[in-house]
Amino acid sequence: MSSAAAHPRALHAVLGSGPAGTALARELVRRGHAVRLVDRTAGGPDIEGAERRAADVSTADGARRAIAGADVVHHCVNVGYHLQVEVMPRIQEAVLGAVADAGARLVVLDTLYPYGETGGAVMTEESPWKATSAKGRMRAELDERYLTAHREGRARVVLGRSADFVGPGVLNSSLGAAVVPGALTGGQVLGLGDIDLRHSYTYIGDVAAGLATLGEREEGDGRVWHLPTAPAVSTREIFGMIEERVARPLEIVVLAEPRPFGPFDERFMAEYAEMFYQHTEPQIVDSSAFEHAFGITPTPLGAALDATLAWYGTWLADR
């Protein structure tokens, strides 16, 4: 058993308080760990059992303050699409340097971007990294640095890759605020690209459970894992499942190419254009390696949609 699992009060520092970091902090508290949730302002809602701390982890001093005393560090920081190529390498340098100096383990929330266009082939951890987009190449370069640091003994690192998020608190996703509010209120619902292609979505609760498990289980270190992800179905099938739950037909607006819509403004869509291949070919994630290694299965898609619709119902009522 790993040291983190053997000592349930290990301190886990979660960097980034977006949907993934917030869900992860709650999951770690539920598992009995001491938890510190870090972002630039520490201004979000309280999470019972978690300490909030403000730090800018794109700087060496900020990263050191963020992880001071932590046994495990979870890197869930993301930035706006237009800033990623510039800022994410700076964050990596600061965080990787801090964990190396402190001797903490590092769990990195990762994306599918390094694989690039697959022609619809199922993505496993053995799939080649063929990204041609700027963001995909950047992510691949960062991942290789993480894995090299582990191989060379400078840091203990593990990467957990996720498909598009779905779930409570998830707004900026292709199955988020451009879809669910319209489904609940009779407004327009966005479909990107070819909605008849199979497309994987990872439930935010499974992202949290997967990252928490990697934080507890050192035997997973030194490699990439696909976080638990339900079997892929077409986006049209998902819309049909939502229609059953809201008891009304959806007014689906399909964008065959990137252009502004709802929460996705012109700047975002301009930056997202190079990633739009994700909606013009099947995006199919196989997470069976993780499931077999750690005994965790993904939440069924229907249950994930139930939780998502319930959360958005409350979110809309509070606005």
Order of helices and strands: HEHEEHEHEHEEHEEEHEEHEHHH
Structure annotation, total helices: 11
Taking all residues together, what is the mean pLDDT?
95
Beta-strand portion reads 15-25%
- Main sheet makeup: 7 strands, parallel
Number of strands: 13
Question: Can you tell me the CATH superfamily of the domain at 3-166 and 202-230 and 284-299?
Answer: NAD(P)-binding Rossmann-like Domain
| Main structural class | alpha/beta
The stretches of 5 or more residues where confidence is low (pLDDT under 50) are 1-7
The CATH class of the domain at 3-166 and 202-230 and 284-299 is identified as Alpha Beta
Helix share, percent: 25-40%
Global shape: globular
CATH architecture level-2 label of the domain at 3-166 and 202-230 and 284-299? 3-Layer(aba) Sandwich
How big is the Rg? 19 Å
Organism: Streptomyces actuosus
Protein name: NAD-dependent epimerase/dehydratase family protein
Domain NAD-dependent epimerase/dehydratase: 16-219
Helices, strands, pairings?
Blueprint: H1 3-6, E1 11-15, H2 19-30, E2 34-39, E3 50-54, H3 60-67, E4 72-75, H4 84-102, E5 105-110, H5 134-151, E6 156-161, E7 164-166, H6 180-185, E8 188-192, E9 198-199, E10 201-203, H7 204-216, E11 224-226, E12 233-234, H8 235-246, E13 251-255, H9 266-272, H10 288-294, H11 301-318
Describe this structure as you would to a colleague.
It holds the Pfam family Epimerase. Residues 16-219 form the NAD-dependent epimerase/dehydratase domain. It comes from Streptomyces actuosus. This is NAD-dependent epimerase/dehydratase family protein. The chain is 39% helix and 17% strand. It has 319 residues and is an alpha/beta fold. It has a domain at 3-166 and 202-230 and 284-299: NAD(P)-binding Rossmann-like Domain (Rossmann fold, 3-Layer(aba) Sandwich), CATH 3.40.50.720. Strand 4 (72-75), helix 4 (84-102) and strand 5 form a beta-alpha-beta unit. The model is unreliable at 1-7 (pLDDT under 50).
